[in-house]
């Protein structure tokens, strides 16, 4: 399906099947169309072309209030004039035929328990902290037992520590309820840690769909490799493709080998991607090692990050596990060092 | 200069204004209301409750005012709300400014001129002539309570539209989406979200219109043909025709008292409805 | 214009202009609204409206006149300014009661005002009016004035006011609706109001005439303050109220548009409407009613007293006064001025009614102005 606003194409040729009970994330920078995709699922936008199907039924013309879908809004959109309990019970009160008052109260109470807010029902929503409001928003959505729960950057407004906690809670909740979750986020870490599958978007298109590990280990493009995790990229010309492996010659004349991503052709431009944590750093030269100068060192606790410089490849980021350094002083800026990595750890990609 | 002195200095202009424009005139009115009318009119100092004892002589004027002010406010509200809603929620932002200006423009014209226009519209050559052409004969509109209501609603509409417009315009549109997402039909969303959240605007608009209506005299005089008599008209006559300052002051003071009590009760009611302190009106 | 024809564009513009000038009728709705006073304040607050004088002859650069709407020829004021350098600032008022209220409140800033006959004794009693120094009024010739319209200017032998114009208060009726039965009395006026003129009649928003004419219905004096007689008048007025089109001294627009067919009316308005719409007749009730006379006077504490004398003297000049009559159409009591007027004006039955009709008329009495019962009666009538 596609969606255009005036001349702007917000989402284009989105073709995606979401399985029941799945936790799927739309990941991409702002303006990539992920929110539009979500709003089409919710029914706030109608696709300009194509269909939205829920349980095999086309719901394009179905208004939001008729869809078995609920949404947790960015910054929550809680009703300021209602208590916490009334916010949560809002959806239940819209049901026709009407639900008994006691049934609603029970369900609200259970939803409050689920999000660990028992006893907060009578509070006003603006009296709650950000994290509590987030949970009220969640409870307000899940109490309706939707087929699909949509989450629009639900954790963006929380501080880092709270975000971590809420990520865990979200994941628990999803397992516990078995509802299909669709999350929109620009935070790759969030997407990686929460999702069963991630749908990476760019400029209104889906560029890759896969499990977090697939995306991390086998990004289909430099864009994905760059957006999902960090990576060093060396550009060059593809010299040879031999089955699963390929070789690339960089502009500096360096020949590098790595796994071949699908669709590579010899003689074309390519790009080798190597994750910083896949590179080993040592003080002694060895076979296949390249010699570099340490530019900078950042101590990160369990890791140390080095920025090193290589005559032909330029700057390279290396993430060394702390274990290797215990007792050792590590490398000071200006020191000589040697890098190596296995060919399997590197991936040769088509440039975008 | 101590901080306390500085603070006093800062509130001094407002305090002086309050004193000169409000407290002083009101004190005069209060003192005069216990006096007597001079033989040829005016005021003779005295201490008598006679003027207050005479209040029943203006009972009809008070009764008319106490009926008109709430009804006129309600009528203005019923017309202003859909208008403000249309402007704030349904109108393309490109047209908003223009339409808002169109709502204000009549306010730039003297109420006299505008009321006079209504005399022509409601007069025999206006709407009744149109109705007669359609076969509905003998419709009398001008110089009736209906004409006064039309004039009042028309005159005070902008004062009602604006606060409601502002409240609706500030309303977070995602709340409406959230309501719809949670299964509320459009009318249910309006009833459960839009309306309660526009209460501050409604409260402000009603207050502005109500207070002004309590003292209204011009529109009834012009469009009521002198037959629709409010406290405002009674006051004009008492001060400018019969020159009974003492009785006029008693009537005025009583009106102010009624106004204060009504507004106080109203504020308490609204405060009870009010949910967010930061949403309380823009006055 | 036919009674049920549409108002023409020209007429509409005229109406609007009249309204804009604040000059709809003589004692018109400004009195009701209290805007007369507001106009006065505004006028005084805008010095730009006054030209600065290059040659003030010791009388100052302006003179403030409180008068009635539509009651002067502005060319006469221009001539005065040209001659003396003093600009005439005109404030118009709605009723004698309003003028009195303003003077009683103090600080009016007026130099000349135009009280009606029955109010002058009250102004004297309240010490609000200046005795006139005849030596400063070379154009005043006591012998030239019909004493009927000049006497009220003298109180206890002292001259306080000199005559301006006089007139009558009758009613105007649109004869195309009278079914061939002419109205000739105040009894007709009220009886027909409750019959074939129901919903089409207007009475003044003015205690003197509305109560006075209701008193005439019973044959009582126009000026009665007798409680029993006033009670009868009140009963009649309240009985008639549901049949009234409006209680307003601004009756010309409704009469001209055909909304109203019958109204209490002053000479000048009757003349104006009759000239434009011949089927509107001006009638003096056979039982009687009001005859009145307006005067020029100077209030106590006038800020430009010399200019005030100069202006009154200017207006008393028969040449000037004749131009005034031609502009507003009210009769004068000055034989010198009448000598300069064309015969069609002097023979006009609206301006100069038949003697037997005039004989039945009464001048308003000071008691009506100060009597609180008449004021309260009018308030009860309006709020009924």
Automatic annotation (TrEMBL), chain B:
Organism whose genome encodes this protein: Thermohalobaculum xanthum
Annotated family: Belongs to the binding-protein-dependent transport system permease family. CysTW subfamily.
Coiled-coil spans in chain: none
A GO term from the CC aspect: plasma membrane
Entry protein name: ABC transporter permease
GO biological process: transmembrane transport
Main location: membrane
TM region(s), chain numbering: 7-34, 66-85, 97-121, 141-168, 245-267
ABC transmembrane type-1 domain residues: 62-268
From TrEMBL, chain C:
Subcellular location: Periplasm
Gene Ontology cellular-component annotations: periplasmic space
Alphabetical list of Pfam families matching this protein: SBP_bac_8 (PF13416)
GO biological process terms, semicolon-separated: polyamine transport
InterPro entries linked: SBP, Sperm_putr-bd, TAT_signal, TAT_signal_bac_arc
Transmembrane segments: 28-49
Domain of life (superkingdom): Bacteria
Annotated keywords: Membrane, Periplasm, Signal, Transmembrane, Transmembrane helix, Transport
Major localization listed first in the record, in broad terms: periplasm
Gene3D superfamilies given in the database record: Periplasmic binding protein-like II
GO molecular function: polyamine binding
NCBIfam families for this protein: TAT_signal_seq
Protein known as: Spermidine/putrescine ABC transporter substrate-binding protein
Source organism: Thermohalobaculum xanthum
């Amino acid at each position: 399906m596609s969606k255009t606003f005036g001349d702007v194409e917000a989402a284009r040729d989105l073709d995606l099947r979401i399985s029941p009970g799945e936790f799927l994330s739309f990941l991409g920078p702002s303006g990539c169309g992920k929110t539009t995709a979500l709003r089409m699922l919710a029914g706030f936008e109608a696709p300009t072309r194509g269909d939205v199907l829920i349980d095999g039924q086309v719901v394009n013309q179905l208004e939001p209030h008729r869809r078995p879908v609920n949404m947790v809004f960015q910054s929550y959109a809680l009703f300021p004039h209602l208590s916490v309990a009334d916010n949560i019970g809002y959806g239940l009160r819209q049901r026709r035929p009407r639900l008994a008052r006691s049934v609603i109260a029970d369900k609200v109470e259970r939803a409050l328990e689920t999000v660990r807010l028992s006893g907060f029902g009578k509070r006003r929503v603006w009296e709650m902290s950000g994290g509590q409001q987030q949970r009220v928003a969640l409870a307000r959505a899940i109490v309706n037992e939707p087929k699909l729960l949509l989450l629009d950057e639900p954790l963006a407004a929380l501080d880092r520590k709270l975000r971590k906690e809420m990520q865990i809670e979200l994941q628990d909740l999803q397992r516990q309820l078995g509802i299909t979750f669709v999350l929109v986020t620009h935070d790759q870490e969030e997407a990686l840690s929460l999702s069963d599958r991630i749908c990476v978007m760019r400029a209104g298109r889906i560029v890759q769909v896969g499990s977090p590990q697939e995306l991390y280990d086998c990004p289909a493009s430099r864009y994905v490799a760059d957006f999902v995790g960090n990576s060093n990229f060396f550009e060059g010309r593809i010299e040879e493709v031999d089955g699963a492996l390929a070789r690339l010659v960089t502009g500096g004349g360096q020949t590098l080998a790595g796994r071949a991503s699908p669709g590579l052709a010899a003689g074309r431009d390519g790009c080798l991607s190597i994750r910083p944590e896949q590179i080993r750093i040592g003080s002694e030269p060895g076979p296949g090692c390249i010699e570099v100068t340490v530019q900078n060192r950042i101590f990160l606790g369990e890791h140390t990050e080095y920025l090193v410089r290589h005559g032909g490849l330029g700057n390279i980021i290396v993430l060394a596990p702390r274990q290797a350094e215990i007792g050792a002083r590590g490398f000071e800026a200006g020191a000589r060092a040697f890098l190596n990595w296995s060919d399997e750890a590197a991936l040769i990609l088509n440039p975008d | 200069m101590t901080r306390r002195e500085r603070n006093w200095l800062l509130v001094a202009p407002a305090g002086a204004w309050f004193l000169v424009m409000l407290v002083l005139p009101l004190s005069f009115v209060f003192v005069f209301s216990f006096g007597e009318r001079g033989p040829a009119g005016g005021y003779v100092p005295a201490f008598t409750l006679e003027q207050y004892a005479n209040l029943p002589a203006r009972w009809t004027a008070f009764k008319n005012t106490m009926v008109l002010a709430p009804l006129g406010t309600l009528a203005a509200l019923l017309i202003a709300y859909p208008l403000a809603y249309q402007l704030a929620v349904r109108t393309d932002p490109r047209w908003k400014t223009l339409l808002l200006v169109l709502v204000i423009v009549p306010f730039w014209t003297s109420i006299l001129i505008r009321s006079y226009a209504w005399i022509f519209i409601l007069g025999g050559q206006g709407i009744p002539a149109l109705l007669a052409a359609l076969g509905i004969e003998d419709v009398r509109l001008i110089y009736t309570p209906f004409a006064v209501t039309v004039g009042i609603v028309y005159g005070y509409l902008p004062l009602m539209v604006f606060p409601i417009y502002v409240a609706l315009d500030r309303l977070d549109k995602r709340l409406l989406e959230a309501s719809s997402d949670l299964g509320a039909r459009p009318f249910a969303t309006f009833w459960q979200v839009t309306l309660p959240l526009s209460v501050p605007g409604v409260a402000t608009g009603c207050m502005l219109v109500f207070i002004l209506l309590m003292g209204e005299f011009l529109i009834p005089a012009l469009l009521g043909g002198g037959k629709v008599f409010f406290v405002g008209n009674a006051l004009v006559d008492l001060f400018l025709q019969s020159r009974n300052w003492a009785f006029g002051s008693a009537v005025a003071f009583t009106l102010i008292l009624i106004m204060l009590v009504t507004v106080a009760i109203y504020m308490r009611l609204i405060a009870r409805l009010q949910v967010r302190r930061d949403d309380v009106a823009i006055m | 214009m036919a009674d049920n024809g549409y108002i023409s564009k020209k007429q509409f513009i005229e109406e609007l202009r009249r309204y804009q000038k604040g000059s709809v009728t003589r004692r018109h709705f400004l009195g009701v609204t209290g805007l007369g006073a507001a106009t006065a304040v505004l006028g005084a607050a805008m010095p730009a409206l006054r030209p600065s004088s290059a040659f003030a002859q010791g009388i100052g650069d302006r003179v403030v006149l409180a008068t009635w709407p539509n009651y002067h020829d502005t060319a006469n004021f221009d001539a005065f300014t040209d001659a003396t350098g003093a600009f005439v600032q005109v404030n118009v008022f709605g009723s004698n009661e309003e003028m009195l209220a303003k003077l009683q409140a103090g600080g009016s800033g007026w130099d000349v005002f135009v009280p009606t006959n029955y109010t002058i004794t009250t102004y004297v009693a309240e010490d609000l009016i200046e005795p006139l120094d005849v030596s400063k009024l070379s154009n005043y010739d006591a012998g030239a004035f019909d004493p009927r319209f000049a006497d009220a200017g003298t109180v206890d032998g002292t001259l306080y006011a000199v005559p301006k114009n006089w007139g009558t208060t009758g009613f105007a009726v649109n004869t195309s609706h009278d079914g061939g039965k002419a109205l000739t009395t105040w009894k007709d006026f009220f009886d027909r109001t409750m019959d074939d003129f129901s919903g089409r009649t207007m009475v003044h928003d003015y205690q003197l005439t509305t109560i006075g004419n209701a008193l005439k219905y019973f044959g009582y004096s126009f000026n009665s303050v007798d409680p029993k007689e006033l009670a009868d008048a009140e009963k009649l007025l309240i009985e008639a109220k549901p049949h009234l089109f409006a209680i307003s001294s601004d009756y010309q627009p409704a009469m001209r548009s055909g909304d109203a067919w019958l109204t209490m009316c002053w000479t000048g308005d009757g003349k104006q409407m009759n000239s434009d719409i011949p089927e509107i007749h001006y009638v003096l009730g056979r039982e009687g009613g009001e005859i009145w006379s307006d005067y020029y006077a100077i209030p106590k504490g006038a800020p430009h007293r010399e200019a005030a004398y100069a202006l009154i003297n200017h207006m008393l000049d028969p040449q000037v006064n004749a131009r005034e009559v031609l502009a507003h159409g009210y009769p004068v009591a000055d034989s010198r001025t009448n000598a300069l007027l064309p015969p069609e004006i002097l023979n006009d039955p609206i301006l100069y009614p038949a003697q037997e009709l005039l004989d039945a008329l009464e001048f308003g009495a000071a008691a009506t102005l100060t009597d609180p019962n008449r004021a309260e009666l009018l308030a009860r009538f309006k709020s009924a």
